[in-house]
Amino acid sequence: MLIALLGASAQAADANPAVSAFARALRTEARGVAEVSVFFPPRANPTRTAAVLPNVSVYAGLLRRNFEVNVGGVERVAGRDATRLTLTPKVGDAARWTVWVDRAWNVPLAFEERSADGTLARRAALQQVSGVRARSRAAPVRPEGLRRAVLAAVPGLACPAGFEPVAVSVSGRGTEVQLSDGLNTLVLVLATRNVQTAPGVAARRVRAGAFVWLIGNLPARALSAALTGVRDVRPDALGTFVAPPPSKE
């Protein structure tokens, strides 16, 4: 019975073609010449070349919960047949994605992220493919109890629809909480100074020397609404969830 249940669970996981392709990409990557363009946040030189597509941190459970996945037709990418997948958020104003998955290898050959208004935020696509290479990357995991700790550290925070806390770290900006809806990422910063608001950046002064910022590809109203009810900032409440800063050695 246990074996049967495990088998059914594995089949259910593979039933989502986007989850299947991104899971496969943890073990196998297509290589060649890729063009990578990032338009959000804006930068002077948005386009570069690379040998592989950039990594995408995918939380499978959140992706299944938050996105409708539609399987489109077959298109040519870098001379290979690829199935077009369209991933549309079920709720909220998060970005939608299109992913082109190699029909033989079941790994992404290209992807693009578009804001809720349709503006292209980033695109990465292999222009030439030389083959595939094995690799080993662990799938990201949401720590149990992190949501409760984040809400204790930032009472009154209203996570945007679909987003959940997935990781905590410390940077030069302050304590950073990463939020994910499975594909899209926001960064909540608990800081001791304010920051100027801009497209993709909302900020709120909570009290003297305590500020919260929310950064990511969401409309300004959605970012601001998440912070409106914040009453305090208590980084110590995050306890052992805070990852140590990377070693300089």
UniProtKB/TrEMBL annotation:
Gene3D superfamilies assigned to the protein according to its UniProt record, in alphabetical order: Lipoprotein localisation LolA/LolB/LppX
Record protein name field: Putative sigma E regulatory protein, MucB/RseB
Source organism per UniProt: Deinococcus maricopensis (strain DSM 21211 / LMG 22137 / NRRL B-23946 / LB-34)
